[in-house]
């Protein structure tokens, strides 16, 4: 079960994931990410503080947008993951391809760089 | 004994009995005329008549029982034919009598007697044939009581021949008893109800003709009696009189009952039709191969039941229309007329699904004066509308609306059932596919991995309910080098099994070229990526163990970090080299995200390969088995042989999970160096 909320502030789309992302709930994640994807759309910041578990299907969702984001020139960051979840990203090697931060401040700093 | 044979034997006996009877009777006549004693017993003619009657009865009984599936009108037709044959013969005799009347021959008592005997035989045969058929009709719907009454009647009737035979006095009273019994069983006319309108008319005609034959025979025999009073034989027979009264009474009763039933037949037939149509709709679920056919049957049944002049069915979620005696454009026009009529609002609610009962009303649209509209609902959801049109005003009675309502309900149920059945079938097919996939997957995993003098290997793998994507394999590159791989395909089911098969192909192809692990991963990524969809990936770890230099080269593509126990340090550690899953990015850049490592091994060292099903296995408290527990159990049992280590890990894992069923596949490969 997962709850996903999103809202725009400071020209950034803030998405909050609350719960577990498994094979069935990954569809929900995919839908909400898809909604904010686009060439002239603002950067996306995903709050993973309450993401308690992510399965390979959930990783697959994030993974599938890496290429599209690059093409769009759109930025996406993930932050505030717990250690276990971060390890899952790291194990697969997604930490090398995605911007993952510890705090919201780091996110804002990173997104305002350019 | 077959029925046919019985009939032939009975026929033979009856002819023989009749011939003997004729000879005996003629000699009696001759003797009486000449004041002589014929030497025959008095009871002999009556006895022969009894034999004759019973054998004729047996003949017709077996004849009619052979035709088990005979319909009711055919039964009547049978006696009509018998009657016609006997009457024609009898009439021929009469005409002979007429032509030769007054001649010396016709004044001969013996000739007259012989002709009379022929007539008597014919009449008896006809009456008995009728009796057999009447029995069949009366017992059309048997009850125990009715069968008993009939048995009493039948025995009494044939027993009456014995009365004459034994010359028992007061036998005239017995006649009354038999006739009363006959009347009692005659009230059973249930067969009439099963005749269609057409069959009833046919039956009336046949019954009238049968009655005419009976009357003819009656007159014929009476004439003989008046003209030739000396023909004493059997004219007083109780049997003949009782059977005659019974057969004619039942014929008259039947005729009257059919006549009275005629006006209500059409209503009865309609009811029957409704039941049949209803049955057809219910059965259509088992036999029809598409929903369209169910709609066709609904349209057809509804039109036939209400005798509609035109009709059509519209489906909500498709452009499909089923038309009957109407064009699409006409149907459009009528819909407009309906929305303009008093029915407008109800029709709108009905189409939108708010109203679930059918309605009927008037419309003004040229040819058609009344319309009835019924929703077709499948699982409470409005899916279509049935329109029925009639050229007369108020053509749809309340009853017709109710019946058609049940029809459209039944069609909805049939469609729901049909869908359920199709779904069950596809689920079944899906399960079958999974079974095949699982078989394929099991075959993809090797029974034992390659070893050499330097190390031993033990493996363990379990798949969860569904087909998973765990994979491990080995390949002996040469005398000293062995390639080892462990992997996990994301997703489950057939696609996972398919990707696993691809992975095996890639492994077998690339391992042969003896590539360094990092090169292996790069090529494998290239090869496997094109077959994966956007959200799927494959994780692997690839090892080359070289016993010549006692080295291990390895690289990791996003797979769970392998565990290594160092005997010298007496410590286990997870490898920390970076890596990226296969299928995530394509092209040359992939190499930037992986790292190849090498080290030397010593005897007693242990390499543990596993899939994340083990570290992520959860117990009932939702705790994960985790990396630490795995590490601990390895350190604790490091002195054991690889097989024992494997057992200990699995035991520890199972006791941690308790009885919680596995959510994922897990695989474990233990390599112990010697």
Topology, please?
The complex is a heterodimer of chains A (114) and B (674).
Chain A: E1 2-9, E2 12-21, H1 26-35, E3 43-54, H2 56-72, E4 76-79, H3 83-92, E5 99-101, H4 104-112
Parallel strand pairs in A: 2-3, 3-4, 4-5
Antiparallel strand pairs in A: 1-2
Helix pairs in contact in A: 1-2
Chain B: H1 3-33, H2 44-66, H3 72-100, H4 104-107, H5 109-138, H6 144-166, H7 171-186, H8 197-227, H9 238-287, H10 291-306, E1 310-315, E2 321-324, H11 328-340, H12 344-352, E3 359-365, E4 368-378, E5 381-390, H13 398-444, E6 455-462, E7 470-476, E8 481-489, H14 493-512, H15 517-529, E9 538-546, E10 551-557, E11 563-566, E12 571-574, E13 596-600, E14 606-610, H16 612-615, H17 626-636, H18 642-657, E15 666-673
Antiparallel strand pairs in B: 1-2, 1-5, 3-4, 4-5, 6-15, 7-8, 8-9, 9-10, 10-13, 11-12, 11-14, 14-15
Helix pairs in contact in B: 1-2, 1-5, 2-5, 2-6, 3-5, 3-8, 5-8, 5-9, 6-7, 6-9, 7-9, 8-9, 9-10, 9-13, 10-13, 13-14, 14-15
Structure description:
- The complex is a heterodimer of chains A (114) and B (674).
- By secondary structure, chain A is of the alpha/beta class.
- Helix content of chain A is 40%, strand content 32%.
- Chain A has one domain: Transcription Regulator spoIIAA, CATH 3.30.750.24.
- Chain A has helices spanning 26-35, 56-72, 83-92, 104-112, and strands spanning 2-9, 12-21, 43-54, 76-79, 99-101.
- Chain A has a five-stranded mixed β-sheet, sandwiched between helices.
- In chain A, helix 1 runs parallel beside helix 2 (56-72).
- In chain A, 38% of the residues are buried.
- With 674 residues, chain B is α+β, with helices and mostly antiparallel strands.
- Chain B has three domains: 71-270, no CATH class; 288-421, GAF domain (Beta-Lactamase, 2-Layer Sandwich); 445-673, Phosphatase 2c, domain 1 (4-Layer Sandwich).
- Chain B has helices at residues 3-33, 44-66, 72-100, 104-107, 109-138, 144-166, 171-186, 197-227, 238-287, 291-306, 328-340, 344-352, 398-444, 493-512, 517-529, 612-615, 626-636, 642-657, and strands at 310-315, 321-324, 359-365, 368-378, 381-390, 455-462, 470-476, 481-489, 538-546, 551-557, 563-566, 571-574, 596-600, 606-610, 666-673.
- In chain B, strands 2-1-5-4-3 form a five-stranded antiparallel β-sheet, sandwiched between helices. Chain B has a five-stranded antiparallel β-sheet with strand order 6-15-14-11-12. In chain B, strands 7-8-9-10-13 form a five-stranded antiparallel β-sheet, with helices on one face.
- In chain B, helix 5 packs parallel to helix 9 (238-287).
- The longest helix of chain B is centred in the middle third of the chain and has 50 residues, at 238-287.
- Chain B starts with a helix and ends with a strand.
- Classes of the chains: A alpha/beta (114), B alpha+beta (674).
- The interface between A and B is medium-sized, with 18 and 24 residues.
